[in-house]
Records
---
Amino acid sequence: MESDSTSNYEAIVHKKIKEMGEKGISQQELARSVGLPIREISSIIKRLVEKKLIIKKAVKENGKNIVKLFAVDNNYNINIYINLNGLDEIPCLSCKSLTKCGNGIHVSPQTCSKLSGWIIEKALS
Ligand code: SF4
């Protein structure tokens, strides 16, 4: 489990990387700007990468390849609408074999004629 100070440092580092936006920030710049030792920054970066909050990317600056850190935009704003009409007609809801049914076993959705028939009927209607 993470200590409070560890997660605080993580939040500070993550915020700084986010602030840099598309410009990104190198690990050395980051260490200087947040005032943490490079070793501490390295382990925080590793954790943020594992959590998929940031990515490392090589960019060319002044003819040199530099590894920079970029925040990952996880703020998706997508509306998905699902038509639930007819959901109560799915044969599984009234099936006596429901508790015995599963992938890869004798009674399964892959081999069920009731389910296949219902799907085909819905697709054709
Ligand atoms: S897939 Fe077939 S057997 Fe399995 S629960 Fe649904 S209707 Fe029943």
---
Amino acid sequence: MPYTDLDRVDLPYSGETFDYVIVGSGAVGIMMGVELTRKGKKVLLLESGRIGEHRDRQIDNEVVQTGKRLENAVWGRKRAVGGTTIAWGGQSLPFRPVDFSRRDWVSESGWPIPFEDLSAYYPRANAFMQIDALDYHEDIFKMFGLERPSFDAAIDFHFSKWAPEPDFTKVYARTLERDLQVVYNAMLTGLIPDGNGRITGVEVSNHAGRRQSLKVNQLLLATGGIESNRILLNNRDLNGAVIGDHSGWLDAVSWTTLGFRPVSSFRNIPMHSSDSSTPMSAGDVNIRNAFHSPKPISRSSSC
Ligand SMILES: Cc1cc2nc3c(=O)[nH]c(=O)nc-3n(C[C@H](O)[C@H](O)[C@H](O)COP(=O)(O)OP(=O)(O)OC[C@H]3O[C@@H](n4cnc5c(N)ncnc54)[C@H](O)[C@@H]3O)c2cc1C
């Protein structure tokens, strides 16, 4: 079915039940939506942007990093059906084991999972992007009947691969229009918790600020690293605790490590509990960090 524009109609699914509500129709949201639909699940995809890139939607991406407005975050992420896949290159380059290791000379390095936990999914991810199953080293030489260069062992090399069509809305147009329900101009503005720590509903707003709520069974946030943090940090469970921040790392990573603070959110709808139309100063960020961080992190890095 064609996409639904929440600026033109009311949320048509108030009485309906979906197995999954996915928020964000970018690389992650579309992949999860398509995969779940293939498994016979009923999926609703909510997207804050509209079809194609528009300046009036991009401003919802504004963030302040250590006191300065970060233009890369505004234009480097796309608020549109398809998310950033409407602009990305579609390059598919896997991590390497060293990326997961703790390195003494890299602050906060080391992942809580090993490389093997992720690498098992690379072939599936590449297949989704219509990329071949060749490895990134020897296979390409074999394909061209070439000898591997005789570098010494200290020199590593790899090839890179690219999706033939990077825009997921084009690759999966039929599935998105036929099997999923896609609603755009639909900004998630709130999570509705029950007393057992579960999210049972969401509040969604169109660009005129008209809010509607929707029951959810399973909610998947696919709004990207910055926005997912913003959504979680803006919402509280019934005990007043930030949803999903039991470890304290959500706040620590957003505000301390990256120094990010999203400023304008969605047409006068504050998304952060301490949000205002005035950007925070770097000093404000430090005060907030000192209060929320599980441990001090002095580093600040760029996007
Ligand atoms: C020019 C460019 C080139 C790139 N090239 C590559 C590349 O070659 N290879 C690579 O791996 N990566 C590349 N990237 C990075 C890549 O695009 C991102 O890492 C990827 O898109 C992240 O996927 P995502 O689904 O998390 O976020 P996105 O694709 O950004 O999707 C998030 C979606 O969530 C929506 N959303 C956000 N908040 C809300 C809300 N509150 N309610 C409803 N919807 C919301 C947004 O509008 C958006 O549609 C590139 C990025 C850029 C800008």
